Amino acid sequence: MWSNFQDAMATEKPLQIAGVINAYAAIQAKNAGFHAIYISGSGVATASYGLPDLGMTGMADVLTDALRITSVCDLPLLVDCDTGWGAASSIARTVREMERAGVAAIHIEDQVQEKRCGHLPGKMVVETNEMCDRIKAAVDARTDPDFIIMARTDALAMEGLASTLDRCSAYVESGADAIFAEAVMDLDQYRAFATRTGVPILANLTEFGNTPSFPIDQLRSADVAMALYPLSAFRAMSLAAESVYAEIRGAGTQEKIVDKMQTREQLYENIGYREYERKINELFSARDQSE
Fold first, then answer.
1. Catalytic residue among 117, 168, 190, 229
2. pTM for the whole thing?
3. Which of 63, 159, 237, 277 sits between 20 and 30 A of 291, alpha carbons compared?
4. pLDDT tens-digit profile of 144-168?
């Protein structure tokens, strides 16, 4: 049975949410002690399809990764659903498919359909009413009362704090269970979101963006309920992979970098290989004896 996102938030404040790019990364995050995990739209586009995060992947692409993750990891999974991938009927289908896949929570954003990375210039947001309609469609489609629908806002960079707070209040009135405030630059802004909306606030601590790497104690003091690290492990994996490829290509051997690799036994431990092997041996032994 998949875990409840609300229960995870009750385990710690802020709830640390680890970004994972595939099923094995989800296993590693759970083994590290995280209580919740996340699929980034950017991570799906880059890691699974080799594409930039410019709205070039859709629900089916994200759902494929979500299903792979929930099949092996029971931690509550938060999924980036971009703008919901369409009008009201499409958003409703997104919610139903995510629920069916065992996803615990999603966030839908207020950018236009031709979205951009939230920490880069050039992004545009829809009118407040249009985003409220997205939230209403998602909430109306929900069948599991524990399924969390989070509203992400990218308006801060363009409209300022006061206007963005007005937006978020409207999103909550439309049924949003939590607010994902993107590209926040100081703790007082997080505190203002929490005070104004009265719902849990998520801090997106993506590296190389506009938001500083605030430590947990500072986020807690600003009433932040969730601390998200969407691509931290993926960035480290990518740099390590480039180093390994370069070494093997240049030296003609991996001899000098084997100590930087996860061992076969460590891999087997993480995926429960020995237990699978034991079960197979048990089944074949039972068959052989019956023959």
1. 117
2. 0.94
3. 277
4. 999 999 999 999 989 999 999 999 9
